[in-house]
Structures are given as structure tokens and as C-alpha cells.
């Protein structure tokens, strides 16, 4: 099978919510010497397309969940390969990431977490519905200098500001780099709440984190 075919089949496995195919095709892509970063990119495209279909009510929650499992299956094969390349001889920088309090959307945050991990960062995923106090507690406990907070809804976007206000109130704002992102977040919003950075997507977030942390 030619490279292109394998990649389009890999994307199709996400669109078909096919966990077994996703795993097998991920293995096959590595066997064929395809760059695992490129493979993760097409998986992400598949998830994005499904997000649009979900909005149009062409697919429903169970399918989104299955697709997310298929994504994770493929990642379990691809991620170690990417990490191997990216972490050779480097000390990993810890980052905590989560979706803010009141918000249970996780797919995009998981993608960002995965991309950061594959880029060599030590990612601690706090999950969803994370309160500002928990972000701080865990960042301190884990020695993380970066706190990455996702919001997918206009009702929960203010919690990103609450997080920054909370860090200010505790007198520790300058000890952390706060990254914000998620469907409803914009550069303007990030500027408005004085976040340190805004990541529009997973790849942009990796580049941003590398720039802010001066990682090559
Ligand atoms: C899937 C989905 C769900 C699933 C979530 C499943 C799960 N486990 O994640 C379910 C069905 C549970 C759900 C529930 C709800 N949802 Co919903 N959901 C979506 C949907 C269709 C897709 C989201 C998604 O996964 N996108 C795919 C990922 C890959 O994209 P992404 O999250 O944007 O992430 C990318 C970037 O934003 C960025 N990024 C993401 N996180 C981070 C973090 C950082 C730090 C950085 C830097 C970058 C970054 O990188 C990612 C990769 O490129 C969106 C619509 C949409 N198209 O966005 C609505 C949407 C977000 N939901 C919405 C709503 C209203 C709800 C509900 C309130 C519905 C309801 N009435 O019950 C509940 C909320 C419950 C709650 N308390 O959170 C609205 C929000 C409207 C708004 N503007 O406020 C949307 C926009 C749909 C709509 N048009 O109305 N939802």
C-alpha cells in the first residue's frame, strides 16, 4: 500500500469509529517508515471532521467516544515512536493541562496533551472540570512551570480568567506560564486576560510552548 493510501485509511478509521483498524493501520504506517507525526496529523484531521459532523447532528455522542478510543489506540502505537525521537538526551519539562471547571469537553485538550508529550514535554493531564485551585496545587506538586487551560464554551471561558486572577491573588502569577486554548478562545481573549499564550491548535501550542520555554 502506498504512503498516501495508508494515511487516508488511517483517517478513515477515525471517521468509521474503527478502533481495530486504527491500531492496525498505525502499526502498518510505522512498518512502512511513515513519519509518526504525519500519521497523528491525519488522525487529528479525522477527529476535527467528526466534530463538524457532530454539530450538524450527522453523528452522535457514542460515535464521538468510539472515534476518540480509535484515536487513542492509534496513538498508543505512534506516541512512543515520536517520543523516542524527541526526548533523546533531553530533560523533559513538566506541563499541567486540563479543561476548566464546569466544562467536560476533552477531545481537543487530549490532542494538545498528546502533541505536547510527543514533542518531549512531561505532560500531566488533570482531566476535565478542573478548578483554578487544583491547577495551582498540581502545578506546584509536580514542579510544572506551565499551566495549560482549555475551555470550549462561552460559559466556561471566564474560568480561564478566574485561574489567572487566582494565581495573582496567591502571589504566584509570575511563577507560571499560562497557556489558554479551546474552541471559544481567541488571541484577543488571551490578551484581554493577560494569559502568556494562546494556542489555536495542537501544533501551534507545541510551537508556542517551545518558544516560551526556549526549547529548540
Ligand atoms: C464533542 C462535543 C461535545 C461532547 C464532548 C465529548 C468529550 N468527551 O469531549 C459532549 C456531547 C459531551 C458535549 C457536551 C456539551 N456541549 Co459540546 N461540543 C462538542 C463539539 C461538537 C466538538 C468539540 C470537539 O471535541 N472538537 C474537536 C477538537 C479537536 O477541537 P477543540 O476542542 O476545539 O480543540 C482544538 C483547539 O481548540 C485547541 N485546544 C483545545 N484545547 C486546548 C487547550 C489549550 C491549553 C490550548 C493552548 C489549545 C487547545 O487544540 C485542539 C486541537 O486542534 C463542539 C462543537 C465544535 N465543533 O467545536 C460542541 C460545543 C463545544 N458544545 C457545546 C455545548 C453547549 C455543549 C453542552 C452544554 C450541550 C448541552 N446542552 O448539554 C454540553 C456541555 C457539558 C459541559 N458541562 O461541558 C457548544 C458550546 C457553545 C459555546 N460557544 O458556548 C459547542 C460549540 C456546540 C455548539 N455549536 O453549540 N459536547
Structural summary, described in words:
- The protein is α/β, with parallel strands linked by helices and 216 residues long.
- It has 2 domains: 3-87, Methyltransferase, Methionine Synthase (B12-binding Domains), Chain A, domain 1; 94-212, 3-Layer(aba) Sandwich (Rossmann fold), CATH 3.40.50.280.
- The protein is 58% helix and 11% strand.
- It is built from 9 helices and 5 strands, in the order H-H-H-H-E-H-E-H-E-H-E-H-E-H.
- Strands 2-1-3-4-5 form a 5-stranded parallel β-sheet, sandwiched between helices.
- Strand 1 (94-99), helix 5 and strand 2 form a beta-alpha-beta unit.
- Helix 2 runs parallel beside helix 4 and helix 5 (107-118) crosses helix 9.
- The longest helix is centred in the middle third of the chain and has 27 residues, at 61-87.
- The mean pLDDT is 92.
- Cobalamin (B12) binds at residues 47-48, 51-52, 54-55, 61, 64, 102-109, 111-112, 148-150, 152-155, 179-184, 199, 201-202, 205.
- Belongs to the methylamine corrinoid protein family.
- It holds the Pfam family B12-binding_2.
